[in-house]
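Data availability (excerpt). The following record was deposited with the supplementary files.
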Amino acid sequence: MLRVLAVDDEVPALSELAFLLRQDARVEHVSTATDGGAALHDMVQMIAHGERLDGVFLDVRMPGLDGLDLARLIGGFPTPPRLVFVSAHDCAVQAFELEAVDYLLKPVRPERLAEAVRRLSAAVAPPGAEEDLETIPVELGGRTKFVARQDVCYAEAHGDYVRLHTGDAVYLVRMSLAALERRWAGAGFIRAHRSTLVNARHVSELRFDAGRVVLQVGGETLPVSRRHTRQVREQLVRQFRP
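Predicted structure:
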C-alpha cells in the first residue's frame, strides 16, 4: 500500500487529485501541501519521525519553490520518494531528466491517474511483486471504481465491451477482449474461448464434461473451445509447474 504526498498551489485541483488518489485501493494514505515550502517541511518532518513516503504527486508551476526545484531537493534525500509530475504545461523533458515515474497533464483523467499509480506501485514494489498491482478503472453511476486485476476470475466479451467477473460482482469496461488479452498476457490470463479470458489462479479444475473440456473458475463452469484446448492445458501446467 502506498503513502503519498500531493502538492499543488491550486486548492480545487489539489482537492480533486487527493480525492481520486484516496479512491484507489493501492493508496493507503494521502497527505497534501499547497506550496513547495510546506511540502518540503512536511517531508523533512516525515523523515525525522521515521514515516514512510513512497511518492510525491507534484505540480510543476507554483509560486516560490516550484515543482522542478523541489524535485531537485528531494533527489538529495537519503531515500527519496518517487515523483509523479502533474501540470497543465508540457514539462516532460524536465520530468524525464529528474527520473520521474510518470507525468500527468491537467485536467487529470481518473484512468490516467490509475496508470500513474500502477507505475508508482511497480517502482516501489519488491522485484517480482508488480504483476498483482495493476487495476482497471470502471465507471459506476458517475463514480470510478478501480478493480484489481488479481481479483478478476474471468473476462467475457460483450459486444464493444468486456465483462469483468470477480468473486462477488460483474463490471463492464469499454474495450475489446483482444486488447485486454494483450494487456494482461504476462499476468496469467489464458484465452479459453473466443469470448472468454480466464485468470489461471482462479481455475480449480479442468475436466471433460459431455465430450467437451471445461474449466471450473470459482462457482462458474466455463467451456474451452477445441481450438484453445491444447493451449489452455499447456499454459495451466506451465503456470503451476515448480
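Summary of structural features: The chain has a mean pLDDT of 86.
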